[in-house]
Design a protein that fits this description.
heterodimer; A: 190 residues; alpha/beta; globular; B: 182 residues; five-stranded parallel beta sheet
Chain lengths: 190, 182
Amino acid sequence: MFAAENGLKGDPRLQAISNAIRVVPHFPKQGIMFQDITTLLLDHKAFKHTVDIFVERYKDMDISVVAGVEARGFMFGPSIALAIGAKFVPLRKPKKLPGEVIAEAYELEYGRDCLEMHVGAVEAGERAIVIDDLVATGGTLSAAIRLLERVGAQVVECGCVIGLREVKGQLRLNGKPLYILVEPREIDGC
Amino acid sequence: MSAYRDKDPLIHGIQSKIRVVPNFPKPGIMFQDITTLLLDPKAFKDTVDLFVERYKGKNISVVAGIEARGFIFGPPIALEIGAKFVPLRKPKKLPGKVISEEYVLEYGKDCLEMHVGAVEPGERALVVDDLIATGGTLCAAMQLLERVGAEVVECACVIELPDLKGRERLNGKPLYVLVESR
């Protein structure tokens, strides 16, 4: 669900966030209009709005785990975790986490990839959210959800700054609610 | 300079949450794992607060964080002190036009990149990472910032491995750490 349709209609913060995102055409390959959030991170007010909106939403939901997907999920997740008093759990590409891990494979457009989480980071029964900068097909987020569920956590919601058109019709991912702040920007002048 | 003082309970609390994983990524290395620190909301908050206390009100407009663990500590600090956050990344991850700085690894080389235009000349910057070992990566990070005319005020890390003498590779730039691990 989009924030604007869910209580934040007309909230000027959403426009500021959207305006701060840069579109880079043909990255990483031809035809892809890459949604670059690094320009959002350069705009302190807009970056703060982004975190604040997620914090407002999650602070009274008894969330004890914020899981962030490497690497751009690391830029948003920890600030949210700190503000709501939850632990931050990094979900990483293979071989980065030093301790014992559990792994979940997922499909890419061509081939497969894998997401890992430390054993013992999350306990059964904990209420968790997953944070990433953007959801496209939902493959990575689905893998993240499966990791958390495998250790008995309850995934309350997935929160993303940007949601691509493929997910617009989907309110849920793996049966879990999806909360998105903004739609992708179009390239200016096109 | 280090915040480490035997009797400081905050520092002790932070240090006690860091897990040492032997022989990772290879035999002989005692890896300092900060993920266990992130699992303790109070200790994680204390970590960020110590940096914020030091840098708030010092006119710092840029916090640059080194991929990927610098992305965990840098943004909360940037948000609290009113600075922008600039990710310094491995090659080919940043989508826009970049400048690159190569640095030497134990075996071979690596490269750090920063977006052109992210930082302007005259800006006062911090470089943040979870740990300083030999100082090679931090050095490359400082080079990137200085090449675009920024002033690196200090490098800030949670952990220092003083035996690797990384402090000496920082071209005289100050280094602030919370915890030393020998």
